[in-house]
Design goal:
Order of helices and strands: EHEHEHEHEHEHHEHHHE
Strand order of the largest sheet: 7-5-6-4-1-2-3-8
Radius of gyration: 25 Å
Strand content: 5-15%
């Protein structure tokens, strides 16, 4: 199969008919074999029931429905796992992504040899309250990721070689960092394509300030786990030794003052407390490192999401 189009959605009952109609028109104009995998992230507005009826008209469509809302990363992860196409293309279900971009995204993977191509919505129709935080967010991620050529990490319209999506794991809000995750997994040829951004006609935006905050927390988390997941002792042990050294140095200094100079320590209680607390903190960090090493060497993390129903294809 040439192309798998993966579309996560949540409460998009208004846009689904138009989305599938547009995808069908584009794909029928091209000589591609394809499938469309729609992952319902626990919709409550009748989107799944509508999708089942639309699948009769569009037989290349497959559906997966979560038992409850897990988030976009979970939906993408599940769609990636199910995708069979040589090239996997993701897009949002709100019609702000144009399916007409699919052939060129496919060509860039096949002919130009990219591992991943990310869309860039240079001209956006979002309100300023969304555009400004997005620009700052992308600026920070460009620096942290070492991928200076991407302007929009969070664009839902992307294309991947199948090997990429089978070898990365996304959870939480990690979908916005997929280019970074792919690069760290060894897929280094990452490109960008300027794509059309259309105004939202149905539903409401899922963006909010809470997502901005959790996004930066996830950035810290992903950087930390990338560096120390396999060697947590390098982080906790280093800081543990540092604090043990500082605490021990402080207490030795106080002991010298007491034993060799005969000076009382009544007025040095804050310094003594600092030494004791710092020493204990060092031992705690060192112990945490040892426990983390045991956990990382003896556990296997696996995303598990409760799927309520599958439809179409082999599902």
């Amino acid at each position: 199969m040439d192309i798998s189009i993966v579309v996560p959605f949540y409460n998009e009952v208004g846009s689904l008919p138009h989305l599938l109609e547009e995808i069908d028109a584009v794909m029928k104009s091209q000589p591609f074999s394809y499938e469309v995998i729609l992952v319902d992230d626990g919709s409550t507005d009748g989107s799944w029931k509508l999708l089942l009826s639309l699948m009769e008209k569009y037989p290349a469509t497959r559906g997966i429905r979560f038992q409850r809302n897990y988030g976009k990363s979970a939906a993408l992860y599940t769609g990636f796992h199910a995708a069979e196409g040589t090239v996997v293309i993701t897009m949002d279900a709100d019609l702000q992504d144009n399916p007409a971009e699919v052939p060129e995204l496919y060509r860039m993977i096949i002919e130009e040899g990219y591992d991943l191509v990310s869309g860039w919505k240079k001209k956006r129709y979002d309100p300023l309250s969304k555009r400004l935080p997005s620009r700052f967010f992308n600026f920070v991620v460009r620096i942290v990721s070492g991928i200076p050529n991407l302007h929009d990490f969070n664009c839902g319209l992307k294309s991947y070689r199948n090997e990429v999506v089978k070898n990365i794991e996304v959870y939480g809000e990690m979908h916005r960092y997929i280019p970074m995750i792919a690069k760290w997994a060894g897929f280094k040829k990452i490109g960008e394509k300027e794509v059309e951004h259309r105004k939202r006609e149905y539903g409401t935006s899922k963006f909010g300030m809470s997502r901005l905050v959790t996004g930066f927390l996830d950035l810290v988390s992903i950087v930390f786990t990338h560096k120390y997941m396999k060697k947590p002792m390098h982080f906790f042990g280093t800081w543990g030794v540092f604090f043990v050294f500082i605490g021990a140095l402080d207490l030795v200094y106080l002991a010298v003052i007491k034993l060799m100079l005969g000076e009382g320590l009544g007025h040095r209680i804050p310094a003594m407390m600092f030494g004791v607390v710092t020493l204990l903190l060092g031992f705690m960090l060192f112990s945490t490192g040892l426990l983390a090493e045991l956990i990382s060497r003896n556990s296997i993390y696996k995303n598990q999401y409760k799927i309520a129903e599958k439809a179409g294809g082999n599902g």
